[in-house]
Amino acid sequence: MQTLWDDRYALRTQNMKGSTIRELLKFTQLPDVISFAGGMPAPDIFPIDEFREACIRVLEENGREALQYGQTEGYLPLREMISRHTNAYGIKVNAENIMITNGSQQALDLIGKIFINPGDRILVESPTYLGALQAWDAYNAQYVAVPSDKDGIQVEHMEHALRTGPKFMYVLPNFQNPTGVTIPLERRIKLVELADRYGVPIIEDDPYGQLRFEGNHLPTLEVLDDQLRGNHECYHGNVIYLSTFSKTLAPGIRLAWVVATPEIIQKLVMAKQGTDLQPNTFAQYVAYEVSRQGFLEKHVKRIVEVYRSRRDVMLDVLESYMPDGVSWTHPEGGLFLWLTLPEGCDTQSMLVKAVEKKVAFVPGHSFHPNGGGMNTMRLNFSYAQPDMIKIGIQRLSETIKEHLK
Amino acid sequence: MQTLWDDRYALRTQNMKGSTIRELLKFTQLPDVISFAGGMPAPDIFPIDEFREACIRVLEENGREALQYGQTEGYLPLREMISRHTNAYGIKVNAENIMITNGSQQALDLIGKIFINPGDRILVESPTYLGALQAWDAYNAQYVAVPSDKDGIQVEHMEHALRTGPKFMYVLPNFQNPTGVTIPLERRIKLVELADRYGVPIIEDDPYGQLRFEGNHLPTLEVLDDQLRGNHECYHGNVIYLSTFSKTLAPGIRLAWVVATPEIIQKLVMAKQGTDLQPNTFAQYVAYEVSRQGFLEKHVKRIVEVYRSRRDVMLDVLESYMPDGVSWTHPEGGLFLWLTLPEGCDTQSMLVKAVEKKVAFVPGHSFHPNGGGMNTMRLNFSYAQPDMIKIGIQRLSETIKEHLK
Is the pTM of this model over 0.90? Predict the structure, then answer.
């Protein structure tokens, strides 16, 4: 259908692609397909009863406020709760440092909106989170990609990238999406020092940090940057930190947050005001009500148990069924692991065969901003139940074996 | 506090102002201030019981789906319900023509994202909705303003503006924000014809259309554009239509929608994916559950009754207390009316005095994209209860009388 809108799209619209993967993923939702493709939390352990009780209480006690317009920066008690939580991680902030967003995706978009001029370079890990690339493509960003290994971004290859003058760098230090790997302490320190030496600020995206199955919690880049400045009692603001309720409470309520200086928060608030006015008032009241009595800590323990056992099952069956030449990461937490096939394999074309065998994954190529990763794939272990994980990995290994023939 | 982020803001950030009014409005939230400044629905008639019942039912019957990730374009049954509602207005569309957004503000942002190149002209009414200007300022839009009178945009002054080559025009035909005026049928037809003659597509923003207190419902620009093309059974797509649940259900759930061609919807979906992934799943399930059994129609009637009586009270006391030389609009629906003081008055400086007298409004200047309107103000009649409206308008008339001395 021809309309007057046809030739009126903005130039940036040409940059909004990212739909190859979207098109592919449609197949993965066919019935009987065991999908390791999404990034979905396990719905079987959503705290449905607690949500119901919270909804009832919120509507009975604060119905008028919870259904009304609210502040752009978010519901104050929720921001205060998040700042207390952040303080417990060693970062001294208060509610002024916190803004609520519709999932971390919106934080990425608003950061792009206030910081990225067309053509600006962003330093990213390769592979990196696809959603960040989608958010910043719309602002015509370019990417300087630094390769990563089983310990995350290779800091020894960072210096060249830092010398190209990136606007900022974007890192997911814990159980990264897509690889599942975690940056060890020594490398984190080195990374923060390098960023400081070149004067490049950092976006630290940490959606999964609380979902650690084993080993010790590592200090965030934010804490390490503060320590570098000799005072870890004070938040210095060079690191903007992102986290979310999507993986601890539920993604359907679309609540995440940004930690930044009050000045940056004010700019983000201004951008959010023009973007969608405010976060969902009702969802914020309910999330606060569900979380405030210590339930969240308890619930996170339950999630960790369930995901740990699903990861273990996946690692076991991978070990049993995968042919020689295939390797994978061993994540200490989170939702994903990363499979690498022999050079020359093409996981994108393999996906069609896999879906025929009723199993799905995300081809790794999409996570590489400047190409590469054709022989890799991301597997999610949080969504499918253990017996389905077993069957799914068997199907996948058959697909791979046939591909390798 | 100095950080590495300080000199890194994007150029467009300089355009994100719109905060004079925001700063002013902070005063209006002081205790005892009777505020006609906001655009808030009456919280005393929010359907709180229906929301509670809907939350319980949704969580019991569809808890896992309602708390999980969902589709970017929105929850299908909700989109189907909206398309049936749209059909009832005479526009033949289906779910493929509908996308759910976080309030209409997000629709405005996403439209800016996919259509506006820096420097593009947008044809707007003057005064117009401030949120649209805030959304599009971030894309470095420019505005061609066409003055309006008691019948809305003055079509006889439109031709010059249309000849400057605007990307699109933006109009609120029903009970406009901020003026409360409605464009009569004849002028609507003329507007659609002119837009067609110059090949300029239309954004029709209709948040209040259902809240008509008197007179007959008028055909939307969308319907008139279809009729112009000789077939009102078919949606031709030159008019993108926006509406919302904010004024009929509750603004705190942040749910609105766009009606457009499937092609434009797909572009908007791509933009939304990078912006915040998807609308709130839980809020959509709950809104659908609250609305689906015909409750919404009943509830809208109740809102209309309440707002009509509050408008009547406001018109009465304005008539009784306002000094000579002050005039105001007589809205047939919606939430706002518009007050015009004698030339030379400055409502922005008057606001300080008004707040001292414990009453607040929005100075009209802010709604004028290219200046003007210093002697005007917007008054909201939906939020305050009738006795407060009386006292508030008395206080306001005292402020104005002192100012006129």
Answer: yes
